[in-house]
Amino acid sequence: MKQRLMKLTELSLKNYSTIDSQTLDGLSDFNIIIGPNNSGKSSILKAIDKIQQFESGRSPLNDTEVYLEDRRRAVRIIYTFEDQSFELWSSSGDLRLKNEENKKEQFGKITTLFCEEGRLNSYKKEDPGRYLSGLFSDLGYEKTYEISEKIEDDLRKIADPNIQGVSGPIVGKAETVRLACEPGERVIEPELERHGSGVRSLALLLTEIYVNDPDIILLDEPELGLNPAGKRCFLQRLIDLSDDYQIFISTQDSSFVNPLFWKDDENKVSVFHYSISRVIQGREAFVNVEVDEPKTFAGYLPQSTTLKDAHIYVEGKEDVRVFRAYLQRYLEEKSEHFDSKGDVLNRAEIYHLGGSNWEHFLSTIPGAPYSSLVVLDGNMEGQAETVVKRYRDSGYDNLPSFLKCDNLEEVSRSLSTEDEIPVYCLQKDDISEYAGVEDKREAEPQAWKQDSIPGEIEDLFDILFLGGVKVYQAGSIDSGELNKWQEANGNWEAREGELHQTHKSGNNVITLSGFQLKDGIFEADINSVDGGAGQQLIWRGDGDVASNYYIFGTGNLSSDNPIVRAGVYKDGKPQWIKKKNIKNGDLELGQNEFHTYKAEFKGNVHKVYIDNHLVWKIKDDKIEEAGLVGFHCGRHTSFRNVKVWKWN
Asked: Which domain holds residue 457?
């Protein structure tokens, strides 16, 4: 094992490059810096590389390396190692070692190898034979052979298990540098330049590391075009190398920070996530995010291989568990809409954003063509407004675009346009309130026990999986709601949060005014107070009493002949398409109790439900135009929890 000179444990920067002021502590053997473009990752690597550029007591400093390119600002870089620290500073001109004349020699012995992003790409254009020959030209045969063996072993593990060795007189003619491969029984020796650019780049990068033998290795965007399996192997090799070298990598690829890949080495790995959320204060990093469920953590999501059609992002891991419980129940209750529950679960996933760090991980969320939705607790309302504005004003074109949505209709519109990712705050302060508990850790088991899914959560799932836009909702109907309804006949009033009909005769009709609906969902809880009359939903109506509309509901619930029926009123004449007695059937309905009636209609297909039970699926095209929704009932009927959706 190489004897490392010193280990960097902390780095402090002031007015350097894109960074106003920042300190990274807790540096380890292997350090991963992840974040979007222009977030300051490369600035960290360049600051560390100033060690290598230190010569004759100074290190060069360009105008572009001063924060805001303002030479009046004093630049300061403090390197803290295990047993001592060094400070480079400059008020103008180059960086100098501050008040440490006796440390110049020791500081100058520390070596770095900085592979910038452009340098890694340039490997692909190099003549590999000549490049390797140049690197090996000053080494003896024994050292050359030792390094060749290391490269062979690395490439076989990372890129191609068939690679058998680096052959030919490496110290000699460049064109003789080869890689021997053994894909079957036949041995071939293709030139290194005939291998893919990823293999060639790896060979040159690893050779530079072994030949230069630095104390610190800096790799900017080191993915090298490797496939997912090769990437994992490359990451593992870098972690192994961190026994001998201190390594820093910057990346946008979240698979590099998936702890599943380095769980056996977690004590030697530090992760720094650079966020653009707090752009006013520079690029804020935070260290060693503790995540109990990496598979559902957005910051560690290997998005290149696990993207779904639909993504729901919530704050923390407890929120994931609660939303998963509600999603499972939702799919069971609405199974008639989906081929199978498993199909939806395979196409959708719920991820968390690291709890209180949620704002920093928004940059990991994929945009179109994927459907992504951010759902936060209601107490995040103010912060969400601020964070969305920061992202919008950041000026980074490569980041997702977010929209703070104040209601579910805005969420639906945002998802349908695919231009922006909706960020929605729940009506309640905390998800645990929907489950009726105070401790969020107790919310998941309670979510499974509840009689029904909270309406707001169900509506979010409807938007994401069924594609509707809610155009009206009234859980509790007061007198102020009545101006949204148009009475066609009857005696209607709002009382105790419910819409009541008290007229003694039949054919009482009321419709929602303000919009026409052709395709959608109409749902309400209905109570036949005395059970002696009918109570029905109507849709695609013209608003006139018993004129033109589709109709579905029940009647005679207090008699020996209770019925459920569905049909159409055309020019004032009812045409019952379906009708049956339910006295001994699977619907248990009675007077003085609320039941949920629902109609879903799209084109010529009409599905009707009672208490989430599909009663009929009907095909009919007698009324194809958009129309009003409302109620048709007899005497003494109550309505509540009215919801109307319009299909996108």
From this structure: 294-466
Q: Are 144 and 170 in contact (CB under 8 A)?
A: yes
Instruction: Please give the tally of structural domains in the chain.
Output: 3
List CB contacts of 35: < 8 A, sequence separation 6 or more: 41, 250, 252, 273, 274, 275, 276, 283, 363
- The C-alpha atoms of residue 48 and residue 63 are separated, in whole angstroms, by 18
pLDDT score of 189 more than 60: no
Say whether pLDDT at 313 is over 90: yes
What helix, strand, coil percent values describe the chain, rounded to 5?
A: 35, 30, 35
pLDDT, average across residues 368-375: 86
The whole-number average pLDDT for the span 127-131 is 75
- 3-class secondary-structure state, position 513: coil
Angle, vertex CA 568, rays to CA 567 and CA 570, nearest 5: 155
Distance CA 149, CA 152 (A): 5
Residues 448 and 539 in one domain: no
**539-597 tens-digit pLDDT:** 999 976 668 999 999 998 888 889 999 999 998 889 999 999 988 777 888 888 999 99
Number of neighbours of residue 97 by Cβ within 10 angstroms: 19
- Cα separation of 447 and 33, whole Å? 38
Is the Cβ–Cβ distance between 539 and 547 less than 8 Å?
no
CA contacts within 13 A on the Cβ side of 190: 13
Quickly count: other Cβ atoms within 10 Å of residue 240's Cβ.
Answer: 13
Among 424, 298, 423, 270, which Cα is nearest to 357's?
298
Instruction: Please indicate, yes or no, if residue 601 is contained in any of the structural domains.
Output: yes
DSSP reduced 3-state for 200 = helix
Q: What is the pTM of this model?
A: 0.62
Q: DSSP string of 141-182? A: HHHHHHHHHHHHHHHHHHT-TTEEEEES-SSS-GGG-EEEE-
Give me 94's structure tokens.
């180059």
- DSSP class of residue 453 equals -
User: How would you classify the pairing of strands 216-220 and 246-251?
Assistant: parallel
CATH of the domain at 624: 2.60.120.560
- Alpha carbon 589 to its chain centroid, in Å, reads 44
Nearest to 288 by CA among 260, 308, 268: 268
pLDDT for residue 26:
85
Q: What are the Cα distances from residue 360, in Å, to 293, 367, 388?
A: 18, 16, 11
Please state at what angle helix 197-212 crosses helix 128-136, rounded to 10 degrees. 10
| Cis amide prior to 369 (ω within 30 degrees) | yes
**What backbone torsions phi and psi does residue 517 show, to the nearest 5 degrees?**
-130, 125
Residues 411 and 481 in one domain: no
